[in-house]
Amino acid sequence: MSTKQELLDELLSSIKTHSHYSTEDAHMEVDGNKILAQTTVPGLIMDLVETDDGIEGEIRVKAGIKIAKPVHICFGMIPENGIQIIDLNVVMEEDSEAQFLTHCTFPNAINLEHRMNSSVTVGPGARYTYFERHIHSNSGGIQVIPKTKIYLEEGAQFKTEFELIEGRVGLMDVDYDAVCEADSILDMITRISGKETDFIKIREAGWLKGNRSRGVLASSIALRGNAKAEIYNELTADGDYAQGHVDCKEIVQDRGVARAVPIVQVNNPKAHITHEAAIGSVDSKQLETLMSRGMDEEDAVDMIIQGMLRKK
Amino acid sequence: MSVIELIDLSLELDGKKILNNLSIQFQAGKINAVIGQNGAGKSTLAQTIMGLPDYRNFEGDILYNGISLKNLSLEERAKQGITLAWQEPARFNGIDVSSFINAGAKNKSKTTVKDSLELVGLSYTAYAHRFVDKTLSGGERKRIELASIAAMEPSVILMDEPDSGVDIEAIQYIFNVIQYLKTKKITVFMITHSIDVLKKADYAYLLCNGMLVDEGDIGRMVDYFSGNCITCNHINKPVLEAVQ
Ligand SMILES: Nc1ncnc2c1ncn2[C@@H]1O[C@H](COP(=O)(O)OP(=O)(O)OP(=O)(O)O)[C@@H](O)[C@H]1O
Ligand SMILES: [Mg+2]
Predict the structure, then answer these.
(1) The pLDDT value given to residue A15
(2) What pLDDT does residue A13 have?
(3) Are the Cβ atoms of A295 and B131 closer than 8 angstroms?
């Protein structure tokens, strides 16, 4: 049996960090259903308990509190097999502000399931930024199933980035649903690289309900080997002057299969939604340019894909 | 000795003859200008020498140091030291100027990036970490393209209108690049529509309708721009062409 400290060290080393947080850094590390470490800062309440196969509870940022430094969260599983279920409510009270840096790490996974059922409420004028990076083993025996309900109150800002570009995806089934009240901003970015038999399914839906609400759903997916992806992006606009944009880029190499289904619906003549999708192989002019500089085709393809998946 | 030699080179694209029996020996280590009207076949010739996939099916031959390029792919030709600076360079999402230049550089280093950007008059601090995407202006992108080929130190450069889209002040930096390639004894094939750029070349070839219609020293070939007194079948015999 590993001690808590050993597990913590292994978890953190898999995400290339260490446990020497200062006292001003809020953080929490969870392995399976064990909370290994937790430190909070004034105005941030992390009220979570261990369950049979995960954790559940609430993270709340009190009204008017602005947390200066990012809150680090790490959900992981060091073992090769098992299940982890995270039931989480996030509440950003009025005019609060916080940035979460979350790592989900399964470095040794052979047969693992990670489920996340969460709801996020961002109160009036509050700002919530959530960056989630996944680190997976190369086995492909991982199932990642996050479901999130998002509610943005008036003037709320929600920005999330999801990144899985190291290791195998395995099976991934993402479902995000957002309701946006007046003057709120929804911004979701997804970057995933799939290979071999990986299967990626993403559904992101945003309802621009309030006047002047804005939403962007952007995904960049690279597929190699026999990887498959299905991307469902939905934006519906009801509010006056609501504005939305759906952007879906997929690079498909080898025998990869990509399906993108954008659904945009405008119920108000004053609203405006645009949609852009590009699916295909690597752009030939980009490839030819790099090859004309003496790069091998394979390296050139890699460079172009890494570029597409890179954080802008 | 000619580094690149065309022997009866012809190329059809979509059933249309674009290059027509070209036989040219480009001068080694010199700036060889290629001029001619829009649609004359200049870019097509550059792309055929480079070996882009759509331009591989030519008749005749292209020799590189006496050896046929016919069966060499784009990648193989580039590895032999031939490169192309595009008339309209590609844009890349998420690739920064520094990685782009280093991708093909002979010596991959910060100094190489710095020096080659300096050559085209762009500062390292302002540009190295910008993406080579649509946020760069067309002229900036052209200059970065030239910085990238200079860093590569190839033996043959096909430059397709290095000056197009570059403003009057920045044109000086294009001249810098040409001068640099000259001192490095790199063989340059340079397409241009600019008389000032042509004057930096050593020798020029005039193409018309995919054919070579004239060649000569720069002193004489600048006449093509100033008054069109060099005969070109296409321009001077439109009636004849219509009859044919
Ligand atoms: N894939 C193609 N199929 C058919 N015709 C083509 C194709 N590509 C080029 N052409 C034609 O070949 C001719 C030569 O084109 P090219 O781009 O080489 O001209 P250019 O001399 O570089 O002109 P410019 O000065 O405008 O750049 C043009 O008439 C063009 O329309
Ligand atoms: Mg051209």
Answers:
(1) 80
(2) 82
(3) no
pLDDT of residue A287 exceeding 90: yes
Supply φ then ψ for residue A199, to 5 degrees: -130, 125
- H-helix or E-strand containing B24? strand B16-27
Size of interface A-B (CB pairs under 8 A): 66
Looking at beta carbons, which residues of chain A come within 8 Å of B74?
Answer: 288, 291-292
What contacts B118, CB < 8 A, 6 or more positions away?
B124
A273 and A243 Cβ atoms separated by less than 8 Å: yes
Q: Which residue has the tokens 């784009």?
A: B74
Low-confidence residues of chain B, pLDDT below 70?
Answer: 1, 227-244
| Rounded-to-integer distance, Cα B195 and Cα B208, Å | 17
Tell me the ipTM for this assembly.
Answer: 0.92
Beta strands (DSSP E) in chain A are: 27-31, 34-39, 44-51, 54-61, 71-76, 81-92, 97-106, 111-122, 127-136, 142-152, 157-166, 171-180, 185-194, 199-208, 214-223, 228-237, 243-252, 257-266, 272-280
Locate the chain A residue with the closest alpha carbon to B100.
A290
Contact call for residues A32 and A50 (beta carbons, < 8 A): no
Contact indicator for B181, B187 with CB cutoff of 8 Å: no
pLDDT tens-digit series, residues A252-278: 999 999 999 999 999 999 999 999 988
Residue A34 structure tokens: 């064990």
Radius of gyration from C-alpha coordinates of chain A = 20
Q: First-to-last CA distance in chain B?
A: 38
Q: pLDDT for B16-36, tens place per residue? A: 999 999 999 998 999 999 999
Going from N- to C-terminal start, the domains of chain A cover: 4-282, 283-312
Question: Closest-lying ligand to the alpha carbon of B38?
Answer: 1
Nearest to B84, CA basis, from B136, B162, B11, B19: B162
The residue count of chain B comes to 244
Yes or no: say if A95 and A128 are a contact pair by the CB < 8 Å rule.
no
**Residue A229 to chain B, least CA–CA distance (Å):** 21
CB within 8 A of B41, min separation 6: which ones? B18, B19, B20, B207, B209, B210
**If you measure from the C-alpha of residue B13 to the centroid of ligand 1, how many angstroms do you get, rounded to a whole number?**
9
Q: What is the pLDDT of residues A31-79, one digit of tens each?
A: 999 999 999 999 999 999 999 999 999 999 999 999 999 999 999 999 9
DSSP state of A62: -
For the four alpha carbons of B61, B66, B72 and B75, in that order, the dihedral sign comes to negative
